[in-house]
Structures are given as structure tokens and as C-alpha cells.
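Re: the 133-residue chain
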Amino acid sequence: WIVAALGRLASKSASNKSILAREGLINLVAELVRSGNALEREEAISTLCNLSANHESNKDTIVATGVVESLLKLLKGEGMGGIKERLWCIAALSNLASGSVRRQGVIVVAGGIKDLAKVLSSGTSKERCRAAA
């Protein structure tokens, strides 16, 4: 619940996003995405999504943690998470891709186009809608 609370603090405030990043939250949350249980991962991905929304510096820091590969694995269902986890992965990848050709390149090299295209062809209607955005 702590990660969820911190993520919600980041959701509407650029200042809070910067403070949380300076305090090391991005690395801690990225580690939860890689090694947490399903609930921890879902909250961690949601928090990454909030931290990255409209915050270029945080987007760069998040990509630098190497978490893109983990997000794509979870998107493919490798973490045995549910639909919410996959939806948050799509939202986080969308945030990370926006505004930077370099970040887009990291996602492409990690296989993001293929993985997102697969969601468009076989995901739920919510997943397809988010992936298309």
C-alpha cells in the first residue's frame, strides 16, 4: 500500500514527482516490477505510470533502470498477472514513448512494436484500445 500511496502523491503534482524521484523511488519501484508479486507489480507499474506522466526527466530515469524489458514481459503475460497489470504496462509504455525518439528506440529494440501489435490483434477490447493509443 505504501507504493500505491506514493504513486497517488505523484499523480497530480510535478513537484511531488520530482521529490519522489530524488528520494530514489523510481529505482525501488522498478525493482518491484521485476521481482514483486502480482499485487506489488500492479501497484509499482501504476506508480511508474504516474511518475512518468508529463515528466520528461522521470521518463528518462525510468527507462535508464532497464524496466522496459520487464514491462514488455509482463505485457505478454509472463508474470501471470491479470488484465489490470497488462493495462498498466500499456499505459506506462505509452507514457515512456511520448516525447522522445530515444526512449521510443529503447522500447522498439526491446521488442515493443511486436508485443503491442500482438495486443492489438489478440488482447481484450480495453487492452486493444490502450495499445492503439
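Residues 38-52 form the longest helix (15 residues).
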